[in-house]
Amino acid sequence: MELRNVAIIAHVDHGKTTLVDQLLKQSGTFRENQQVQERAMDSNDQERERGITILAKATSVEWNGLRINIVDTPGHADFGGEVERILSMVDGVVLLVDAAESVMPQTKFVLSKALKLGLKPIVVINKIDRQDARHEEVLEEIFDLFLALEAADDQLDFPVLYASGRNGWAVNDLKDERTSLNPLFEQIVRYVPAPKVAALGNEEHPFKMLVTTIQADPYLGRILTGRIESGVVTTNRNIKALNNDSGLVEKARVTKILAFRGLSRVGIEHAEAGDIVSIAGLSTATVADTLCDLTVEEALHAIPVDPPTISITVGVNDSPLAGREGDKVQSRVIRERLFREAEGNVAIKVKESDSKDAFEVSGRGELQLGVLIEGMRREGFEVSISRPRVLFRNDPETGERQEPMEEVYIDVDDAYTGIVIEKMSLRKAEMTDMRPTGAGKTRITFYAPSRGLIGYHGQFLTDTRGTGIMNRVFKDYGPFKGALEGRPRGVLISLEDGEAVTYALWYLEERGSLFVTTGTKLYQGMIIGESARDNDMDVNPLKSKQLTNFRASGKDEAVRLTPHRVMTLEQAIAYIDTDELVEVTPKSIRLRKKQLVPHMRKRAEKVDA
Ligand SMILES: Nc1nc2c(ncn2[C@@H]2O[C@H](COP(=O)(O)OP(=O)(O)OP(=O)(O)O)[C@@H](O)[C@H]2O)c(=O)[nH]1
Ligand SMILES: [Mg+2]
Fold this sequence. Notes:
Blueprint: E1 3-9, H1 16-26, H2 45-50, E2 57-63, E3 66-72, H3 83-87, E4 92-98, H4 105-116, E5 122-126, H5 135-148, H6 153-156, E6 160-164, E7 169-171, H7 182-191, E8 208-217, E9 221-230, E10 232-234, E11 238-242, E12 248-253, E13 256-261, E14 264-268, E15 270-272, E16 276-280, E17 290-292, E18 310-316, H8 331-344, E19 349-352, E20 358-363, H9 366-378, E21 383-385, E22 389-390, E23 393-394, E24 401-413, H10 417-426, E25 430-438, E26 441-449, H11 450-453, H12 456-463, E27 469-479, E28 491-494, E29 498-499, H13 502-508, E30 512-514, E31 521-522, E32 526-531, E33 537-539, H14 569-575, E34 580-584, E35 589-593, H15 598-608
Parallel strand pairs: 1-3, 1-4, 4-5, 5-6, 28-33
Antiparallel strand pairs: 2-3, 6-7, 8-9, 8-17, 9-16, 10-15, 11-12, 11-17, 13-14, 13-16, 18-20, 18-21, 18-22, 19-20, 21-34, 23-24, 24-26, 24-27, 25-26, 28-32, 29-31, 30-32, 32-35, 34-35
Bound molecules: guanosine-5'-triphosphate and magnesium ion (MG).
Guanosine-5'-triphosphate (GTP) binds at residues 10, 12-18, 39, 52-53, 74-76, 126-127, 129-130, 164-167.
């Protein structure tokens, strides 16, 4: 059967996964009456809860007698580290651009990767059904982007479709009738070349496949997925795996070959060059290794993954409340889990740290690391997390110290531009552009150090009353920007172990805003709120003696506390300072000082200074 391999790429939320739903549906992949969830490809828990795609996934549909393998990619910048390697599996891309939001930072990032690989994109201006769609300008901006990215002439000649993926239609011309996605299917078949390697898909050529993703399956073991570069593979055949330097990793027998069929995978006996398949039977081979016939001596070239830009320390939880909620608490199990993650998730790196109870985990952003830690806490882990640090480097030529820089796009109501510019410049960001986008909104673009952006998102939402939208993407390494101011406010720290008492909390509300409420279990050194002042304060949230100015009946219910602030894991990680930790357990997220005992803390401060 003739074959096409295509990936869908776009900025976060521009509608990739929703479009794949409709492509699956309209190709007749689902049984009649089959119950299918919305965004069916976003199959893991965190993807469904957060409403974003975290892992790239492949599916396959049959259309007009052709097989089309479709790869859905994540749009969020934190998960873009391996997009280039994913794109090396396909022969074409569909670039989606939201008809109202237009070109965004990640549009630029993924398009630049696709162009660099020589792929010829099909452009789809999506969500045409939006009230605020402005497709003419958007098309112009897309064209400008191709030019800015120095697309080759044949890449510039891209076809354009207009679509509403959610409503299941695409058209070549807005005057056309809006009935189905057939115009998009047709363009994919016409414009995306058949796999170049198809001619090599016979037994005379040795089997070679570069592993692009890895998964663990309880029955099959390691499942290695990639596109077959040449030759044929059959079940029960003996093959080997080579690492990037062509060194032998292992020899093994292929126990299973799986092909993508809609939302599931089916076992097949035989697969040939050009197809994207998964292979089981190997025990150590991993991403970027080449699976091949025993006669092959040279590995396929694996595209390097973008290096990590930030890191956190993940250590054992040694708080007084440790071990009560999770069953995976020892450094050995944490170590094992983290190294396993790094193996399957090539954008994450794990290193032992100076202390044997802690590990350095680095990745592409706070969300990516947050997803990992959230996954661990759901599996029953307890850990403590440090404040994220950016990874500096020295300029390879001049030796000058450099730090990761990002491009930040901010969309706000005109009234908030002042405060945003003020706060961003405090964080050493340079404004590079500012323009009205209509309807009283402004887009401001900054070039900013990642270091300055840690913890800014929460502040940004407060400053813009929740209406601002911020998008960021790694740009490059730039000269070190010098010291930054720390968190503007100090914290309130518990002096005692026990349960928080309403009267005491009511009294403390004068001192700042609280993160805990009546009955919350506390310990000495735990952070229970943000101080109204810039210095830390040790307080007693357990003092239960009724205060004299209380005339109420003496019952707790008579005192109304202001609702306390509850932080998500990512907010907590972004909030803490360098001398603090986030304690993560399956049920709780607590903030604490590294040094729990007050006089020890004072001493540590002096040593640091
Ligand atoms: N108005 C409109 N909304 C759409 C359309 N397609 C998708 N959406 C909405 O846009 C949001 C994001 O859709 P997704 O399909 O998850 O977007 P995505 O590009 O896969 O997002 P990431 O994988 O996280 O990058 C959802 O709320 C969809 O309902 C469309 O054609 N029109
Ligand atoms: Mg998606």
